[in-house]
């Protein structure tokens, strides 16, 4: 199914916007611009057309013009009047820029100079024109007019004045002149939408923000292809149109990502499948104000969480990730959602492990992935639906890895002794001497009643003795305490999910938000 529509292409340098047509298929976004093409009678280029107009006693040249050098735009034909000289040639169109009048170049002329030339050019006026494909939207030319006969008003909101040349100029001939009409041998021209840029959507990314900043573009976004080619800023007339196009493109990109995942998974073992992957923005720590965010490509595959600067397209690319973390040792956390009632919802998805973040940025749909040694990555996505998918995917990938791994053992120490601490999906917690392998203590997951740590290396685990019902405190010291705490959390969450999956689903902040909308 193909989606089409009219939008504006915004040029950030000139601050002008140009009329374009968008054509969206499952795999490609095509940008079209209007141009005049020769459809019969000649094979030469339609870039420049030279047309002779015979001024008529009633109606004059039968056209209006707009623009001029004082506005930093060419003089363009803004209206063509029905059954009058300009229309009868079949070779002039609204949006044509006037290049020459009777051999005099007017590309740098002001509006008044061109008006004066045309009015005083005599009964026969020869003009050379070129269709202006990127007519700034402030010219307010009627959009999509199929042919020269379209007589649309160019709108009173235009900052540029329409000068009508459908009245008589200084003509010496009072007798009716024969109308200007195309002969059989003359070339025939039509105004058409032509493809100017095609952006493949596979592994493409969307951005509603000004590059690297928290400044949200109003009713606008850009699409960037895998090779970095950009559509430029696509500007829409209403917020609804912008949201519809953003959703449509995001859906197509997601569908193609799913196809890529299926292809990749054919080459991977069952224990090394891609669960989810896609583009996000990562907030840069300690960055200057000009570049707060950078595009990153995340993947959940097998036992690992990958962070790439560019997507992996071959099997070899997977070892070239910027960062690779074990899924048992990461913690996914949603930070905030922009709700309908315009207030922030601070969402601590996983209770029990709290970490304060500096949430001074103004982007919605943010999540962090906390990793070992107290470090974390802070990400943002464009849509609430993407956030819900990442939440579900992290959960699924972590649970699968816990069940596959079965247990994880960490070296630790207490009071000078080197010990081993094991988290086991079936047995719970076990601590044993690293040399003698003697088990010092063992508790089920359900016996863990609380914990506290010094934020560095030491943790106190509070277990309830099943016989005495008393709380026993076990104190241990780890080299990477954060990784161990995340691992404990992953195993307990996976255990709960295996017993009561409905409870885990009920904790989903992002999906609650999605359904409420």
TrEMBL record:
InterPro entries: PDZ, PDZ_sf, PH-like_dom_sf, Syntrophin, Syntrophin_4th. It is found in: Cytoplasm, Cytoskeleton. Residues 50-133 form the PDZ domain. Residues 143-160, 170-185 have a biased composition (Low complexity). Gene3D superfamilies: 2.30.42.10, Pleckstrin-homology domain (PH domain)/Phosphotyrosine-binding domain (PTB). GO terms for cellular component: cytoskeleton; syntrophin complex. Residues 143-187 are annotated as: Disordered. GO terms for molecular function: actin binding; structural molecule activity. Pfam families: PDZ, Syntrophin_4th. Keywords: Actin-binding, Cytoplasm, Cytoskeleton. PANTHER family: GAMMA-2-SYNTROPHIN, SYNTROPHIN. Belongs to the syntrophin family. This is SNTG2 protein. It comes from Struthidea cinerea.
